[in-house]
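Reviewer 2 asked us to include a model.

Predict the structure of this chain.
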Amino acid sequence: MYSHYTFLGVCTECGTKIQEGFLFCPFCGKKLKEEKKEAEKRWITVIFTDIKGFTSLSESLDPEAVHKIVDTLFRELTEIIEKRGGYVDKYIGDAIMALFGAPKSYGDDTERALYSALEIQEVLRQRGITARIGINSGFVLAGKIGKGREGDYTAIGDTVNIAQRIESICEPGKIWVSENVYRELRDKFNFKPLGLFELKGKKEKVKIFEVISPKKVEEEDFVFYDREEELSLLEVIFNDIKNGPFFVLVTGEAGVGKTRLIREFIKIKNIKPIFLFPTPFSRDFLSEWEALFKIAEKDFPTIKESLFYLKNLIRERGFEETKYSLIYLIRRILLKISESFKVIVIEKLGYWEELSRKLIYELVNELEEVPLMFLITERKRNINFPQNKKVIKIELKPLEEPEFSRFLDKIFIEVKNKNLFYSRTGGNFSFLKTLLSSLEEEGFIRRKNGKLEILREINELD
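Predicted model (structure tokens):
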């Protein structure tokens, strides 16, 4: 039924699915080896999505009509998963099993999984369809497993089983997750505790949580630490804003403090910025730029009509033939906006839709004499960002162990076994915050007079 989804395997470098006859990966160019890759143990996030209502649909429609509906929908859901680095492991009847963190890991795989699940539910909701989604994180055996399946990459293990069991008891239209997922992302998403549930094949009851929504970005409760050099560079660039525009690309693995650096800079300089975020659930034209367009409406009352015209023009002729008309409009908007705003923050560039990202790249190359500073956050990856004199790159790294030790002294009243904290977090601020939340919940630490106090001896950290 889904023969067009059958592939011989995946590229071990970038995770792209490979069709028969390919000698090189069509995405990254890596030479493909013919020998079977052994399975490996790795930590991943597994999603099971079971779409409800297709059984009754098949009873009332012609089989070919049902096939067309299901095929179209599965293609769309697959695109949602793959655009965030997920891998569709298999289709099982009306269900999809997807992996995040294998074959390729991006460091924030569980977060990508939850955003994908939320978008899947939104897309289905718009079509009047419901689905149960269960998500779990943990260790699996991943690779090409089993005789006669030389091209099939899959994952097996208890982590997969639990994800499927959670999906099987989930309420239609909801997203239920395991405690592992909750612990990792409770600082980034709103969850509703559902209590303990019995799962088939598990001796003990399992804690389950419902995903409600992403949390709004708020100020970190950690002290700002060890980013003085980067902060000074941002101030130097801002002081030269009259010679703009400048595009500052702030990169680094998830949790190293990219957004925190920018917000600290904004606070120190008392700047009123414009924030532009990815819009994973929107199908609107250039939806990531919506906040900018709304501000510009009073000076450009026909902006909606102009964008509608450009949208149709791009559909008819393609982006390359029409990009200069779009850039001309955006430049006029930016020039006017620069009279009141000096900083535009572009969050998580990798999550932006392709057309919106292309527009940013073109602005880097074409925009001149606009006194604006663009602050762009993105995890370190090869995103082919343009390079010229207007582009400044800042790469943030986790703290080295000596600096991390001094940071612990700032947030704790007294702390021993600092090496345990470093070995568990690798100097990553976000990982430390998650760890401290767990320790606080379990009664090992508490907050006292603006610092953390250890109540029970900590000898090891799971």
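The chain is about 40% helix and 20% strand. Confidence is low (pLDDT under 50) at residues 1-8. We have added this to the supplementary material.
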